[in-house]
Amino acid sequence: MAPTPSARAHHDDLVPDHVSTLARTDPELVECFDSFAFGEVQRDAPLPVRTRLMVQLAALIACGAVNEYRTMAGAALTVGITPVEVKEVVYQAVPYVGMGRVLDFLHATNTLLTEHGVSLPLPGQSTTTPDTRKEAGLAVQKQIVGAAAVDAMYANAPADEQHIQRYLSANCFGDHYTRDGVDVPTRELLTLAVLIALGGAEPQVAGHVRANLNVGNDRATLLAVITQLLPYVGYPRTLNALRALDEHAPA
User: Fold this and answer.
1) Which InterPro entries does the record match to this protein (predicted)?
2) 63-120, pLDDT tens digit by residue?
3) 1 has a pLDDT exceeding 60
4) Are 194 and 80 found together in one domain?
């Protein structure tokens, strides 16, 4: 089925000059995907285009989909997402998927930015020092996760695992969530997108549904994000995310 005019318009707004080779080799699949992702999904789960592209970029990193990431990162720059914001999407993924997976996306991002005439490195966004990162990270961790929950994590961890709790506070939160360039509510949406797309992280998805609610992202926003990720992550991971949403933010 050919994409509807509205689906075609959504597609062309993002990638006006992109001509997929798959449109020639696999036209039926491309038409089906474009009609769904750029038509039905945009109708049923509208999100500001900046938010939509940022969470989709985060999910594509978790999926390991570097080619689609390049295309969508170019679209992100086209609609006004800044180079700093694109880089922060990549940086935010590091504590959740690991540097091993992020490296290819970091190189792809650097190549894309250079092609767009952006000078690297970008201005630094770190707000902490080696002396302040744990304290600052613990503060934002408690803001996001909840003070009682964080205290319980430290209290319940065995003595030989306390270093992991310190890493969560100082590294995951202190090195990443305290950065400028993207605010905390947006970082939480990015984190949720990464965890949904990663698969096998259902307890963490549930935890970050709660964390999103704690920082002001409501059920409608989370449902729209989950729906926008569906074409890229598939139904099983989407349904797992919906289960967490319905449990912790019921309609």
Assistant:
1) 4CMD/NDH-1_regulator, AhpD-like, CMD-like
2) 999 999 999 999 999 999 999 999 999 999 999 999 999 999 999 999 999 999 999 9
3) no
4) yes
CA nearest neighbour of 240 among 183, 187, 184, 199: 199
* Domain ranges, residue 3: 1-19+27-41
User: Residue for token digits 């990443």?
Assistant: 176
Same domain, 83 and 203: yes
Structurally, the chain folds into a number of domains equal to: 3
Environment class of residue 130 by beta-carbon count within 10 Å: exposed (0-12), middle (13-18) or buried (19+)?
Answer: exposed
Tell whether 214 and 174 lie within a shared domain: no
Comparing CA positions, the residue from 232, 234, 186, 238 lying closest to residue 69 is 232
Among 21-25, 97-101, 179-183, 211-215, whose mean pLDDT is lowest?
21-25
Cβ neighbours, 10 Å, residue 186: 20
